[in-house]
Amino acid sequence: MDVTNTINGILAEFAASCGLASARLDENGVLSLTFDEKLQVTLVYLAKRDKLIIEANVANSDKLGEGIFRQLISFNRHWYQFDLHFGYDEETEKVQLYRQLAATSLTLEHFENALAEVLDHSEFWQDLLLASTKQDAEFDANLGSMRV
After folding, report:
1. pLDDT at 106 over 50
2. Which pLDDT does position 9 carry in this prediction?
3. What is the 3-state secondary structure (H, E, C) of 18-31?
4. Are 11 and 52 in contact (CB under 8 A)?
């Protein structure tokens, strides 16, 4: 059976279990989903590499300072512990979290577990980055009102 059909079968089962009408890769091997109206995830099938990539948009780069970028990059040193790594999409200017899955051995259970892990980590980093951005804004506001 064609791997694209296998992936689409898994995505159809996933969609049915989540109450979605359907979910399938388009002709380019891509499917975009949004969770909780805030977390955008894209699935990309790379046939030549036998990989299904899960890409989650974590943050806009204009919201991040250099210190946060260093933290994200240092997380990449430990990618093997989580099978996750961060990257930057220059077209969308978004920091993304990635997970690679072997497409030919993909099962519904493995897909759901991997997706849940990406969503959990993405939400964690979004919350952390949001808190950091708020602290930076409060610091800047307080600095502006200081008298010397």
Report:
1. yes
2. 96
3. HCCCCCCCCCCCEE
4. no
- Residue 21 has which token pair? 């009408």
Query: H or E element: which one contains 51?
Result: strand 51-60
Spatial contact of 136 and 65, defined as CB atoms under 8 Å apart: yes
Q: Which amino acid is at 98?
A: Y
Q: At what angle do helices 108-144 and 66-76 cross, to 10 degrees?
A: 160
Report the predicted TM-score, pTM, of the whole model to 2 decimal places.
0.82
Q: Which amino acid is at 119?
A: L
- State the pLDDT at residue 63: 66
Tokens of 64: 């991040």
Q: How would you classify the pairing of strands 51-60 and 85-89?
A: unpaired
| Polymer length of the chain | 148
The label of the residue with tokens 């979290």 reads 97
Dihedral (C-alpha) 110, 69, 67, 78: value to the nearest 10 degrees? 40
DSSP state for residue 61 in the 8-state scheme = G
The closest alpha carbon to 100, from 138, 40, 37, 55, belongs to 55
